[in-house]
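Lecture notes, unit on protein representations.

Consider one protein chain, 291 amino acids long.
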Amino acid sequence: MNDDLLETYREAGRIARRVLAAGASLVRPGASLLETVETVEEMVLDAGAGLAFPLNCSLNEAAAHDTASEADERVFADGDLVKLDLGVHLDGYVADTAVTIDLGDHGELVEAARSALDAAIALARPGVAAGELGAAIQAAIEGRGYRPIANLTGHGLDRYVLHGPPSIPNVGHSGGAVLAEGQAVAIEPFASTGSGLVSEAARAEIYGQVGTRPVRLPAARQALELVSERQGMPFSRRWLDLPRREIALAALVRQGVFRTYPVLHDVPGSFVAQAEHTIIVLDDGCLVTTA
């Protein structure tokens, strides 16, 4: 981590912070989910940055990986708990941040996730074990009567890499990775009224390239050309404007070139809140790039 790189991370964070706040203001009962997602994504591009992944817009028991389809007819409703998870990159260097918008009476749940994030950030410095951050997250959430999502974690960030080491758990454990000066890390607590575990839904609108191999299908070759510049970062189905798109995507998934990111959700009827910031670990603590 040098001064120029740190400034790149900081600028990505400033853009992400500004865009996420503007996007959150669009979330209100009756507003279109598709229009909100597309507006926020366009804001990032207008700011001269890139999208590290499609804007995640996950409702209620859905914790992550939902985004709008191109024909999405969903609208936000009274009582919804809406997570906006935004990734912005500059030359591959990422700011990853999320906020929960409460359209109901879930204020305590939202505060549980926020306070857990604050508790983890307060501890973050070189030599601190990831499990200690997880213990602080778990205590803050359980202290308010909710469950942390045990099978979701924060994660290290690197150039064009969204989920690298170290993994930052949302529950405490001994040992594990130790934070080091210069690391970029996304800390993202999830607080739930449900089981505290997420599973995969059938819905999947987000894809990522995970392999390379020769492909014969012309539509598949076109799809690969369109996403190659992303260097493995996830993309949305609706971003691909090409004939026989569904056949191409299915073929590339089947061949292990693309993978899907299904929506991750807790039990039906539950509610999940999320809070997330990106930090850079410094010699005496950390810098929050997205706050």
